[in-house]
Every structure is written in structure tokens, then in C-alpha cells.
Amino acid sequence: MTDFKELTYVDFKSDQLVKWCPGCGDHAILNSVQKAMADLGYKKEDVAVISGIGCSSRFPYYMDTYGFHTIHGRGAAIASGVKVANPKLSVWHITGDGDALAIGGNHFIHAVRRNIDMNVILFNNQIYGLTKGQYSPTSKRGFVSKTSPFGTVESPFRPAELCMGARGHFFARCIDNDLKHQVVVMKDAAAHKGTSVVEVLQNCVIFNDKTHEAVTAKAFRADRTIYLEQGKPMVFGTDSNKGLRLNGLALEVVTIGENGITEKDLLVHDATCSNTALHLMLAEMEYPNFPVALGVIRAVEAPVYDQALAQQIVDVQEQAKIKSFNDLVMSGDVWDVE
Amino acid sequence: MKEIKLMKGNEAIAEAAIRCGADGYFGYPITPQSEVMETLMALKPWETTGMVVLQAESEIASINMVYGGAGCGKKVLTSSSSPGVSLMQEGLTYLAGAELPCVVVNVVRGGPGLGTIQPAQSDYFQAVKGGGHGDYKLIVLAPASVQEMADFVDLAFDLAFKYRNPAFILTDGVIGQMMEKVELAPFKPRWTNEEIEKNHPWATMGKKQRKERNVITSVELDPYKHEDLNKKLQAKYRLIQETEVRLEMIACEDADYLLVAYGASARICEKAVEVARSKGIKVGLLRPITLFPFPTLEIKRLAAQVKGILSVEMSAGQMVEDVRLAANGVVRVEHFGRLGGIIHSPSEVVEALENFFLKA
Question: Which of A40, A43, A39, A88 is nearest to A65 (CA)?
């Protein structure tokens, strides 16, 4: 018998050569998921990583866990099947903005609506990278790409709105160049029972370089993002002197110390509030008018599909008069032939 | 003056679509054919001919946008590669059932499943035998050059509207990606609404006074009428089989052995014919240009002349079944082909021919 050994993040790395471009944000996400799994004391055999198609979807090859590399857009459905068939597995669905929100939009919203216990890690680089640079459903209006050489004429999805619109109970956002925070968010997502959607603002160095840079670059990240923490006032800024408050039905950025504003005037983050109104307002904040919200924006407890399904089977079996094949054969009109 | 350009097969599809007066293109990125949509977007036909180009959210959306456009009597097309075309099968069977003309291009890559991004010819069954459910046929054209990629877009639209049936261009990653000289056709104007109303009275162009209401559907709720609809479709397919077979024959007159190949494999086999003849083996090539309708009669005729037929496809052997049906046991028919995205060389083809037919 081998001794039980705590795994480190290195143990979750497979023997495959990681084939993402040097400098791609995907490398950091891979590391943070591996670190989160090690920190949570996961065993490799308890994890299944399921992806669709796209650069992000190479993820399962690089994890020394169970993995499926599946069909474009269908990862959420396949992951749902895995979780329902084997509820003991920790299921991680790795996807991108094209995979989850264009071709897979239908499966994405229904997985979220059912609240199947899985973690959806949505790499949002606002471009189709694998097919070499076409615009995606999260590309900004006017975005120039190979299939929109004169700019797109359509509005992008915000993943948070889709998630909450589909009655999602967990939504978090992090950025590819803050590994420490990513690990925290991944662990929160894993701990949450139900579908946890984590949007990672990820850079594509080749086809959409610096798309999130105005927000995520270290030099101005403190002023252009806000790290939300449960029960903490919504403070941000290099000097931690800016904050968010409600002004009527709208959010407002204020400066502590100006116009008599103190920390007490600021909103306090409550991800567990079932009402989506404030969570949506926070998730919709965009630079330059607002800081971009990072961290767990919404984490509400709700019935979990796979647990409810398993329980329903137990309940029905308990109530059933027929407990065995013999009971079934002997049910209805039966008689002895003498 | 002739307009000659060096272009990729995928670019030729795009250029030809604009020139033949297409009204709309709907697509979704997939390798190895994303250049079709990228070229269309770069050429901005909406500013010149008024043609619409739209990047859809999936191939399912693309084919159904085609369904909508076709129902209006417009010349609309989509293109994709194998996994994307699998997603389009539902739309295709509905289009065929509703007797709507459209053009669909499949730049085939290796399968099954996700497969590779390398060229293959393993979607023959899907294109020629159905792919979707029900008794239906697509008119299937197989270009073997970049010139034919350009020419067949116009031809496919002509056939699609002549027979009110989807026309399918079955090509592969070789023809899609390679560059050749193309003589471009002159621009044809797009049809006006008046022309569509006059020539395609079935199109949903809006109900005018004393005009029948047009409804696009693939179903008759009365099962006997639905059988009649099916019989009408079958009669149409028979007519297509009788009138629209297209093929090319190379060095078949004195051939002792016959190669049958389409698309990129036919190009390879052209060279194989030369190699074999330099070795003293009299080999000919029959290249089906239409895969449905299939050149059954011509193969049947040659089967009586030759000592063996080799069907050469970048697949595990799909077209070979139709070649065997045509030869009908008169002569031995074998298959040769590399799989999953690997392309055979002319010498491999000749070697296969020798192994099958010339070794005791």
C-alpha cells in the first residue's frame, strides 16, 4: 500500500507539451486551476475536465486528470452528462467566448439554469484565436477582425448578464495576469454547489493583443478595477480612497474624504443576496466610467440539479411497491397453475 | 478583356459568388475554409452589388439563414468544413424537402469527429447519400481546380434554381488552400424582385391581390399527399440523373485499367496516369464532376473494356461503392486511399494499381 501524499499543483500537470502561444493568458489559467485543485486537496481521479473547441479547449490535454476534448459548443451538455452520470466527480467545463456564447449559447444557458454542480471557466479574449482571428460574440461593437475588416455592427454579450439572465447562482470574474486572485476565485467556484461561472479576462497575444490591457495592466489596475469581497465595503483605487455607492437606482463612484463621504456611505458587498439587481449592476460596470468588478460577484445557494435528481431516484424507489425484479414479475394479475 | 488572377480555392468561391450575382452569404469560421468569409468581408460586396455577408453564431444558424434567404427566392450560399457541415444536415434535408435552391460548399477535412484540419474526401457518403434524414438528394459538384471552384459556384446556382434543389460543392482542403490561375467570369447583376417574382413564383415575395399565398414547407399533413410529394421529389432526382451527369475522361480510349477519382485525388491520378503509362501500363482516368448524378453509364461502358478499376479517394472507400454498382460485377473494382488527412502520392496510386491487378 502506498502512503497517502498531498498533491501539489505540479502533480496536476500532464506530460503533454503545452502548445499555447508564448505569452498567452491561457498558461496562467492552467496554473491557477492546478493550484486551486492542489490547495483544495483534490485527488486526480476525482476530477474531470471537459472542453469544447477553441484554444482554451486544449486544457484537458494538459491536466493529469480525467478529460474530454469534445464538440464545438457542446461542452456544457457533455459536462452535464458527466456530472449526472457520476456525481462524485468534480466537473470543470473549460470554454471560451466563441465556444460557450456563440455556437454553445443554448447549452450554456441551460446548464446554468439547471444549476448542475460544475465549474464553468470561460476564457474571454473577445476573438476566435484557433481559426486565426475572427470576431466573437464578446468583441466590442466596431471591432476590426478578419471577418469584420470595417468593424463589427453588432453588440457584444456580457457573460454575466447571460449567466444571471439564465437564473445563474454563481458568477465571478478574474484577470489572467493576477494569478493569486485567480486561485482564490477558482477555489470559491469549486466550493460553491451548483453551476459556477468564472469569466477570465484573457489576453490573446497574437490575434487580439492587449484587448483587456486598459483595465488589467498592473500600472492602472488598482484604479480601473474593484476587487469585491464578501462583507467588505466596495473600496478601490491606488490609495484605497475611491468607492461605490448607490445614488437612486444607479451606482456612483465617490471619493472618500470628499463632500463629507466616509466609508460608511459605501455599499457593502453581499454575493449571497438572491436579488440579482445589484449583482447585475456591478457586473455591468465598464471602464472608463466605472471600475471593472472582479471577484465573486454572485454566490447564492439554490437547489442543485444533480443532487435533486439523485434524491428523486431514492425517494421514488423508497415509495415504490416494486422493490425487485421478482416483485415486478409477481405484480398485477398473477395466479398459480395447479 | 479576360480577367485573370492568382488565387486560393477558397478565395475563388468568394469572388465567384459576388460575380454570379449572389444575394447573401452566411458562415461561421472553421479551418480550412475561413478564407471564404474573410475574402467576402474584405471585398465588401454590400457596397457594390448589394450582396449581404453575415458571420453567424454557428453553422446551424448559417444553414437556417440560407433556408430563410432561399425561401425568398434569393441566391444564397454558405460554406464550411466537415464538422460544420455535419451541423447543417438538418437544414439541408428541410431545404431539399421544401424544394429550395441554395449552394453549400464543404471544404472537407479529415474525420471522424473533430478529426484534423488536413484535407480529406471522407464526406462523400454524407454529401451523396443524404446525411440528413429522409429520401432526398443534393446535386453534388466536385471541383478539381481553383478554376472549377470559381466556375462551379455559378453552375451550382443554375442547377439549384433549375431543379429547385440544394446544390452542394464537395471539395477538400487541397483545392481550398492551393493557389492557381483563375479566369474570372464577368459580373452578372443580382436578380431584381420583379425578376424573382416572375421566374420563381414559389418564392415568398409578399402576397399581392389575387395572388396565391406562398407557404414554404417540407411537409404535407395528409400522408397520401406526402407520399405524392416524395414521388415528385424522386421523379426530379431521376430527371437530374438522366440530364446532368458531368465527367472528364483522360486517356480512356485504349485503357486496360481505369482509375476513378474526383477532386484533389483526380489531380493526383492525372499524374499517376502519366507515371503508369511511362512504365508501359495503359491506364485511364475517369473523373466524375457530378457525384450526384453519378456517371454510372460511362463507368458501366468502360467496365466492359478494362481489366480492372481502381477507385482512388482520400477516404476508407466511399465512392468505390457507387463504382462497384456501376461496374456491376463485370470487372474487379478496388479502392485505394490514405486516411484522416493524409494525401496519397501518384507513385502510391500506381503501386496500388500494380499490387491489385498486375501481381500474380
Answer: A43
When CB atoms are compared, the residue of A103, A134, A149 closest to B58 is A103
Strands B139-141 and B3-8: unpaired
- B116 at interface of A, judged by CB pairs closer than 8 A: no
Cell for B34? Answer: 475561413
Task: List the end-to-end C-alpha distance of chain B, in Å, as a whole number.
Answer: 57
Strand order in the sheet with B24-27: B52-55, B24-27, B76-80, B102-108, B166-172, B139-141, B290-292
List the one residue out of B35, B20, B56 whose CA is nearest residue A98.
B56
Pair (B176, B269) in one structural domain: no
Torsion of CA B266, B267, B270, B271, to 10 degrees: -130
Which tens digits make up the pLDDT trace of A41-87?
Answer: 999 999 999 999 999 999 999 999 999 999 999 999 999 999 999 99
Would an 8 Å CB–CB cutoff place B26 in contact with chain A? no
Q: What is the ipTM of this complex?
A: 0.87
What is the β-pairing status of strands A292-299 and B3-8?
Answer: unpaired
Instruction: Tell whether B217 is covered by a domain.
Output: no
The answer as to whether B227 is a domain residue is no
Provide the residue range defining the domain that includes A96: 9-211
Show the domain range for B338: 248-358
Gyration radius of chain A's alpha carbons: 23
Q: For residue A205, is it within any domain?
A: yes
Number of domains in chain A: 1
pLDDT tens digits, one per residue of A232-256: 999 999 999 999 999 999 999 999 9
Same domain, B255 and B184: no
CB contact under 8 A, B55 and A148: yes
Give kind and range of the element (H or E) at residue A242: strand A242-247
